[in-house]
């Protein structure tokens, strides 16, 4: 063994294969993130790095993750990345506690994991408050985690149905000019919501829930005039609601209901108002207005995600960094 390398041996070839990932894909993710060289031979893993602290951290990571696999937990590459980032913050961290506290079982075969401290705080707010506003850039998990908490509450019978909605008209487009019937017109706008639900239920399970009326995905205009009891309401892309639409949505809540409102206030697509002295999109945004009006209202919580909370594949992070460097130069 060289001075810059240390080896860890595992006693179960099947579990070692799960730890390393298909074609060592998990190891490649950790190698990309850490800059260390990871090599396998049978059930042995060799960690090569000039930094003793980095070698120690990685050996600790793989030893703890192997222990989790022995306990029957399944781990994805993203879980190893999360464990690595947690150990960077706290070398004494126990990953078993991290995954237990951050995990949310949404189906017998699906567990959703919070990927960072901000996501864990957000999930706690969704569990403990009747209404939660979440703002921040794309990729932070605002909507996906809200759907996950809603599905978990549905499974626990804390709510009887889930309703997901978003503004159907963006960037000035009008549905009347799009081809197809109403369902075909609005489906492209709602596709991200379908994707999140399909990831948790599977295509067939989602279809069954929709046919039973347990899950409803609809454009915001379809919410008018309804009062919804025992439901988990999720409003996505809320920055593109007008003040009137936002007030309409917020007042749909009935007894036993909860609501999550998500959006990115830097991505407002509302066209200027046509009235005299017409307002710009930002001043018309129902989300920005609601954040001001509802500050301090009991039962309403607010969570702000930042660009540092974006969950990215390491390669995506390097691509973004490369573009940033290019723009600066």
Description:
With 329 residues, this protein is α/β, with parallel strands linked by helices. It is built from 13 helices and eleven strands. Strands 8-7-9-10-6-11 form a six-stranded parallel sheet. Helix 2 runs parallel beside helix 4, helix 6 (117-128) packs across helix 7 (142-155) and helix 7 (142-155) crosses helix 8 (182-201). The model has no long low-confidence stretch (mean pLDDT 86).
Task: For the structure shown, list the relevant keywords.
329 residues; alpha/beta; six-stranded parallel β-sheet; three-stranded antiparallel β-sheet; 13 helices; 11 strands
Classify the secondary structure makeup into a structural class.
Answer: alpha/beta
Helix content: 40-55%
Q: Could you state the order of secondary-structure elements as H and E?
A: EHHEEHHHEEHEHEHHEEHEHHEH
* Cα radius of gyration in angstroms: 23 Å
**Number of E-state strands:** 11
Helix count equals: 13
CA distance, first residue to last residue: 43 Å
Question: Major β-sheet, in short?
Answer: 6 strands, parallel
Q: Proportion of β residues?
A: 15-25%
How are the strands of the largest sheet arranged? 8-7-9-10-6-11
| Overall pLDDT level | 86
Which overall shape is indicated by the principal axes computed on the Cα atoms?
globular
Low-confidence stretches: none
